[in-house]
């Protein structure tokens, strides 16, 4: 295992989720209309409390890269019921302070409905509102420029050059604080690394290389061919590069893109090009078993945990058992049981 690679995971900690600790409580619009803003805000506050618990668990297990759920604040970016995050400022600041103190990198990945290549003003307006919402969370946490927001290029709409022109135009229309956090990811359906490089170079917007996406929708050359150029943009911005890895489910139908897109529970092998990198990179594991996939891979390869004061040295079988939950996280969870929504 390349010791320069720092492994992270996305949104949910499965061990803590089994204890009802998670940060993606949300609600439908119909529920909001019945229960109102106060209920949405209480869900959000519980999400933030649990996010802090997850970060404490990560710290105890030497994991310092984590993707924060977009659902922290239910419907906060909805055009009908959007609301200010002022009510949660103290908790947001507390989460951010903990992350900064322990040098955790928090990132976000606005969902597939954020499309800057769209042809209609309505979709662009909703996309911009969603991106501003994500940026507001990270700004209020006090996170620096390492806390990026990852988006895909979006649709092609039958004319890729025209769509890419709209992407560039709409990127330039974003508020500076939003654009400064934004990075592009090659996808498995529309835009590969090669497609995104011209905009990346011109606007100095980094590219997150997704190696699995590239295997499904490849550029004309393998990912390692683009490493130097892609990483130059990251370096010019003073931001640590980040990449995504995943693998298809075991019973994958190689003739079906939809089958190949489905993520497996664990990740068994990292791309050779990534293992040979001679630089620090954060590697986001996109696997269904979340933190367990990171722990399992570290154990399989003797990969090092990020150095922390109390990094766990337990084996996977020990770290995943409920009775071996992190003491700090367990104490916090017990205190919060009576406040759970």
TrEMBL record:
Annotated stretches, region: Disordered: 309-341
Keywords, in A-Z order: DNA damage, DNA excision, DNA repair, Endonuclease, Hydrolase, Nuclease
Composition-biased stretches (Basic residues): 332-341
Keyword Nuclease: yes
Pfam families linked: UvdE (PF03851)
GO biological process: nucleotide-excision repair; response to UV
InterPro entries cross-referenced by the UniProt entry: UvdE, Xyl_isomerase-like_sf
Gene3D superfamilies given in the database record: Divalent-metal-dependent TIM barrel enzymes
Superkingdom of origin organism: Eukaryota
Coiled coil: none
Keyword field contains DNA damage: yes
Protein name per UniProt: UV-damage endonuclease
